[in-house]
Amino acid sequence: MKKTFTQFADAFKALVNAAEETLAERGLTERLLLIADGTDKIPLDDAERLFVHESEQLLAIQALVLYTAPITLKYGGTSVSKLDTDEVLPIIELHQRDGKRHEVGWRTMRELLAKRIDPATFADPVLIDRLIEYSGGHPRELLRLLRMACELTESEHIEAPTVESAIDRLAADCRYWLQPEDYELLAKVDASKGAHVGNDERARNLLWRLALLHYNDGSWRATHPVVRRLEGYQQAYRALTSAPAKLQTARRRRPGKSGS
Amino acid sequence: MTTLSAADPFRFDYQRHLAAQHLLPQHQDDFQRLIKLLRYAPRVQLLFTRVVDESYRRLLIGKLQDLLEPAGRPVQTADLSDEQQFPDFAALETWLEIVGQGRAVIHLVNTGYWLQGPRVETLNLRRNALAEKLDATLLWWLPADTLARLAREAPDAWSWRGGVFDFIAERPDLAEPIPIRLEPSDDINPLTLAQRSRRLAVLHQQLDGEGSTAIPDGFRLNLLLEQADLYKSLGQWDLANQTLRQEALPLAERLGDVHSTAAIQGKIARILEARGELDQAMALHEQRLPIALQTNDLGPSLIVGSQWPGFG
User: Do B37 and A209 make contact, defined as CB atoms within 8 angstroms?
Assistant: First the structure.
């Protein structure tokens, strides 16, 4: 392919041009938009080669193309902006940064779930919201949780213990690869109400592996709700949030101590 | 084992619950998830299991095989400790291409030493290529440290996982299960198949596991009766009969508990009745009749009802 890329690009351009001309003649449209989906799921090295190091090849294909790319490239200092533009497809917001519920997001996720399973399958509609809550607003995570619940259920309806068990299992899957330093960084993000805390390799890895979710245009972030159930995270969060209190206690004691 | 019809989901459900009752209680959910996925899931899957004990792994694979082969899923095993056959990932991939067709289930075992360094990297890179070539589920049996390493070092393969299943625990002492019968039980148990299977697993652990000798005899008798009732409710009459005759009855007699002795004889007699062994059943009913009349515990016996109108 590499050896004959120029021929491929020319042939592809001719094909697209011919298609656009035909469509224009028939008054249907002027431009064709091609969507290359799934390219965000290719191995990271391959994605970097495709979108960064060899992006000229993509530009050589003179057509209107929308590629999906891994989010980590956006923050890797190796921006995909060699292409015309790069946009972040945000996770569906369930809560705003100040913690207020974002009802539109919940409604959207419920609709999405209803396309995959009859909501009546759940013993209680509240359980649907429970799955949505622990998806963090990420459709793939919602479907992963749903699949897990379906695998676990042994009755006609999906009951509350099954939903909790599915959430625990998704959390356990994260525990296999998360490191203590990861928990510290995640706790730091949450303790600072979604602050950016940088784009170093650890942060990018957590984003890519969905332990860290980013909302809006990436302006704020939050730990994946299932990860927040893990003991490692909770310890890190407690250590972080109780530290200032300890410091204040020490400061309050100091004058008394000097006075004694 | 009773032949399983691939087209009969009820039989499959029934068999998978019977198969799980000899596993540890904490493994019930993952075993059921795994067997359902292997039976029903899509064309290509990458599954990971965590296991330590080799004999427990063999037990699990055996149980899966008993359920999958009659359901039309060919089962293969790759022993990766065979360095001559699988010197590198390319050799494994070539082998998988040959055997991994026709909705096969392929166990990859002895992976701890094999799956590291370049082989992990290659698995990470080749997962898409494998998906295109195979019509099979790859089930990697991994020690805990290998699974953790894979999760960290092969994020692409990890993100592609169809599931992770945890079977890390000591192996229980197991006896080969006696072949089962599928006749319906006369004792309608309100618990689901899954609940009964899980409860049996708990009872196995309590009655046969470490610390079982510390159970007081009276409590042990209650557990044995519950175990026998559960076996019976699952159609496992031979196991119910064995539990009652060989364990519960001698214990009740040793305790001098005449009421329990009569109740156990009644349970055995009802099993014998259901199997058509009416003479033996009647003999037992006669033996227990004086006590049973005192306690009004004749039970739902057809032959007792016909011989002694007003009872049964």
Answer: no
